């Protein structure tokens, strides 16, 4: 996983020469945390904005915030387990052990993908495949917010390297 | 005054500290003034933007807590990274709240612009304060 990440980042650095001026490796964890925070909270505020703008028109239901909740739970579950525990390199194994850590991680990704699929379903069922002229933006905002929360959890999980911890 | 005496080098550091403190205080006051102008101008007239002060107060707290836990830390710890994540969220919220209010029509877009400018100045002042206080000790403080 680490080797593939460094190959992708090397390719990004080739195409954007400006990026060579920033010292990446030492501060990689901070950049990953900042990017993840911007994506996560940006998507939450996008949902709030869409809810405020479209609730009066009757095309929105606040039940959709359950997707935000599910995405956030998936975020915390994915990041609750360190990479070392899942790959079996950790010193102490904790209550669940390596097998339990992998099962937890799998369930967390299961929840994250389910959130994505649910947002796509709602977008298509309520905002695309409906007769008549309705606003499409709420459905798009719903899908984008769930996608950005997923990307944010991936960035927080895999964008930080654990080599730097004491 | 401390700045006038060039032979005494022990005071030069304290002089620059005073200048930095006064500059930061000025920046903070300018930011708050812009925020109040955005509320108090007659054509805006709405006091909703003052809610971002809540985010100004919250912003330094996560990193302050994380610093307390790991003073002699290696380069970074999971606690500090989560604090950075939470701080980023608070800063994003401070910029997003006026935009959502303006989109909903509660405040005007001019007031949103004033408030976001004030937020920028204020958060830059907070970052400069951290630089000033931690440039000698803790490695890789924020950057």
From TrEMBL, chain A:
Pfam families: UPF0220 (PF05255). The chain crosses the membrane at residues 31-48, 63-82, 103-125, 137-156. Its main location: membrane. Keywords: Membrane, Transmembrane, Transmembrane helix. GO terms for cellular component: membrane. The keyword Transmembrane applies. InterPro entries: UPF0220. It is a multi-pass membrane protein. It is found in: Membrane. The keyword NAD does not apply. PANTHER family: SMALL MEMBRANE PROTEIN-RELATED (PTHR13180). Belongs to the UPF0220 family. This is Transmembrane protein 50B. It comes from Panagrellus redivivus.
TrEMBL record, chain B:
The keyword Transport does not apply. This is MARVEL domain-containing protein. The keyword Magnesium does not apply. It comes from the Eukaryota. It is a multi-pass membrane protein. The chain crosses the membrane at residues 17-41, 48-70, 82-101, 113-132. Keywords: Membrane, Transmembrane, Transmembrane helix. InterPro entries: Vps55/LEPROT (IPR007262). One of its GO terms (biological process) is late endosome to vacuole transport via multivesicular body sorting pathway. GO terms for cellular component: endosome; membrane. Belongs to the OB-RGRP/VPS55 family. Its main location: membrane. It is found in: Membrane.
């Amino acid at each position: 996983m680490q080797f593939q990440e460094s190959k992708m980042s090397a390719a990004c650095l080739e195409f954007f020469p400006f990026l060579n001026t920033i010292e990446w490796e030492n501060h990689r964890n901070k950049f990953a945390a900042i990017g993840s925070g911007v994506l996560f909270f940006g998507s939450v505020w996008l949902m709030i904005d869409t809810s405020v703008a479209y609730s009066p028109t009757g095309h929105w239901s606040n039940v959709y915030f359950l997707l935000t909740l599910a995405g956030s739970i998936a975020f915390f579950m994915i990041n609750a387990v360190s990479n070392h525990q899942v790959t079996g390199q950790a010193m102490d194994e904790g209550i669940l052990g390596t097998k339990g850590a992998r099962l937890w991680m799998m369930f967390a990704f299961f929840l994250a993908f389910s959130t994505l699929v649910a947002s796509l379903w709602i977008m298509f069922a309520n905002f695309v495949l409906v007769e008549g002229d309705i606003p499409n933006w709420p459905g798009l905002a719903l899908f984008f917010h769930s996608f950005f929360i997923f990307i944010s959890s991936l960035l927080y999980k895999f964008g930080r390297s654990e080599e730097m911890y004491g | 005054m401390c700045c006038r005496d060039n032979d005494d080098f022990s005071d030069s550091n304290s002089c620059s500290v005073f200048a930095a403190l006064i500059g930061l205080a000025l920046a903070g006051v300018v930011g708050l003034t812009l925020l109040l102008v955005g509320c108090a101008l007659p054509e805006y007239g709405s006091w909703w933007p003052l809610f971002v002060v809540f985010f100004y107060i919250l912003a330094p707290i996560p990193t302050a807590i994380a610093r307390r836990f790991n003073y002699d830390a290696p380069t970074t710890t999971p606690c500090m990274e989560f604090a950075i994540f939470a701080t980023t969220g608070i800063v994003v919220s401070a910029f997003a709240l006026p935009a959502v209010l303006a989109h909903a029509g509660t405040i005007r877009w001019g007031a949103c612009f004033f408030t976001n400018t004030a937020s920028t100045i204020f958060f830059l002042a907070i970052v400069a304060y951290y630089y000033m206080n931690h440039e000698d000790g803790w490695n890789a403080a924020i950057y």
